[in-house]
Specification:
about 70 residues, Rubrerythrin, domain 2, three-stranded antiparallel sheet, binds zinc ion
């Protein structure tokens, strides 16, 4: 049995417009790095997937980012 339909879809890098293939089942807000210009991107929309620049500081639902402690400047 041969699967003709690849489970990937083509999206476009907003920086260099290079085609990037991502899994069709990619999650929203999943980080993607452009293989051409190495720009940090993320999936901002699904069906079809759309990439935009990764916006640091926006906490979607991952708790990997730790808030730096407030520096008490004397
Ligand atoms: Zn790019």
């Amino acid at each position: 049995m041969i699967w003709y339909r690849p489970d990937v879809v083509k999206v476009r890098c907003p920086e260099c417009l290079a085609p990037i293939w991502v899994r069709e089942s990619i999650a929203q807000w999943a980080p993607v790095t452009c293989p051409e210009c190495h720009t940090a991107l993320e999936v901002i929309s699904l069906n079809p997937p759309v990439l935009d620049y990764l916006q640091a500081g926006i906490d979607h639902d991952d708790s990997d980012h730790s808030i730096p402690p407030a520096t008490g400047a004397s």
